[in-house]
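Q: Got a minute? One more chain.
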Amino acid sequence: MKVLMFGWEFPPYISGGLGTACYGMTKGLAHQGVDVLFVMPSASGDEDQSSVKIINASDVSIPDSLSETDDFFKKVDFIKVNSEMVPYVDPSLYSEKTAVKEEETISRDVRAKFRSKYKFSGKYGPNLMEEVSRYAMVAGQIASENEFDVIHAHDWLTYAAGIAAKRVSGKPLVVHVHATEYDRSGENVNSNVFDLEKMGMEAADRVITVSNLTRNIVINRYGINPDKVVTVHNAVDFSRPKQLEVKKNCKEKIVTFLGRITFQKGPEYFIEAANKVLKRYKNVRFVMAGNGDLLDRSIRRVAQLGISDKFHFTGFLKGNDVKKMFAISDVYVMPSVSEPFGISPLEAMKANVPTIISKQSGVSEVLNYAIKVDFWDIDALADAIYSLLAYPAISQVSSEYGEEEVNKLKWDGAAVEIKKIYEEVAAGDKKNR
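A: Always. Here it is, folded:
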């Protein structure tokens, strides 16, 4: 079986868990005999292609002849770009609505922009929506040039591309929901992103969610038929070295937050809990690793609380720096307000780090030996951190049993479930022909 897969990032260049998930998933699928053509906006050339074939969208040309272009645009929806968007920032920074129009007539001037190669940044910059729309155009061309059985699109950035590929090829579409706009923005959802998400879910033959928590959001908030929404929990990649030997340069214990410093990830609850812990336990330092729109506010709050000497901001970490951070950590905390899944706790537990997660996370559905608290309960979070720092027996049990538990969550298992979904939608497609 061959799958045309659309993603926005792939290791080694990632900004979060999505790229990590795509990497582990494609490796698992390869073990199941699934060939994956992985399309990304901008490939660097040093991606691991042992399990996938990478297609760089920046290298793909749209047909030059007017007749070919006319035929192409009859099959592909056009996303009119009216705004600049950057994901994971405060919704007030978003501007006017991006319209998605069916069978829109496009002027020759607009079409001309798509006749040659387009250099994608592949980043999350101010021209993101322009890149999303152009990516959809390129996706249609890629679909017309390759043979495949199923289309698989990851998150809202690639849903339009998945739809374009489906329109051109007639092949079934699977969309993978790693997060929703309700996770990123709470109740203040951005209509631009919401519309793209809903459009992708409605057009899909099957919707994969990373947790039952996310499945419920897809069904109840987006109005998607429950019969076509299936949960496949994420996993963790075991191919890398288990641990690094890293020298710890401080005598204190280290409690780590690693993730985007945004509303969704709950950094402010981590700071308030740290303040409470420091009043009871002095031999500890807190580390916040990541970037995001709440970074400046978080720095100011730490200063206001007078704990700057015990609190460190590292900026965004990736690759070996993440593994080094886990290697020197004594406790890992993920206090997310709404976390569709959460791969970082699995990576922490794999590194023998006792872990605390919010009950409002998808990963809490598959973990029994991570300590779970409500994200808003700062006292409970502080107590959990204190217990792991002050009582070695609790820390040891959490570490040992946590590692044993996470060892069972492998991408090969998730890949078996995903392949079954592919086979079901492909069989349905043949039946309908």
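A: The radius of gyration is 22 Å.
Q: Perfect, thanks.
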